[in-house]
Amino acid sequence: MRIIGVDPGSVKTGVGIIDVQGNHLRHVHHAMIRTGKGDFDERLHILFSGLSEIISHFKPDSAAIEDVFVSKNVSSALKLGQARGALVAACGYHGLRVAPYSPTMVKQSVVGFGRADKDQVGHMIRMLLHPPEPCPEDAADALAVAICHAHHSPMQKIVGKI
Asked: What is its EC number (predicted)?
């Protein structure tokens, strides 16, 4: 099974793709979709089209996305929610149902500690997947989302959530 993981952001979004065969995980691709800080509507379009292009090229079987982290800044949270919506829409456009995962669940699945920092997540991604080139933090987070889905999707299929 090929899984695409997404770490949403309104300025930069991480994307990670892995192949899963039994208990074996293999790095396929990681990337950043960078929108800059221009017109927000244009940034949403960049997110949608950028993820659509990656999905078209790599043809994943399944998609997972990190839930929106609610911060104290309501405006930032709303923008992040809209960015996440554009990314979910891109997945839906390509026929992929999206499994959401909380940041705590992603970190717990990859590091074993739900409050792990980005350095710990990045270290585990290097240890588990051996990517051919260094991963930016957001791309490592996206690969972690994909790994989390690989660990949880068999159980979710059993209980009928996917």
From this structure: 3.1.21.10
Q: Identity (one letter) of the amino acid at 63? A: A
Q: What is the secondary structure of 59-90 as a DSSP string?
A: --SEEEEEPPPP-S-HHHHHHHHHHHHHHHHH
Q: Per residue in 61-104, pLDDT tens?
A: 999 999 987 667 888 889 999 999 999 999 999 999 999 999 99
- The CATH number corresponding to 2-159 among 3.30.420.10, 3.40.50.300, 1.10.150.120, 3.90.550.10 equals 3.30.420.10
Residue 41 annotated in ligand binding: no
Tell which residue, 114, 142, 137, 124, has the closest CA to residue 28. Answer: 142
pTM given for the model:
0.93
Whether residue 157 is predicted with pLDDT greater than 60 in this model: the reply is no
- Map out the domains of the chain as residue ranges: 2-159
Is 119 annotated as belonging to a binding site? Answer: no
66 in a labelled binding site = yes
Q: What is the mean pLDDT of the chain?
A: 92
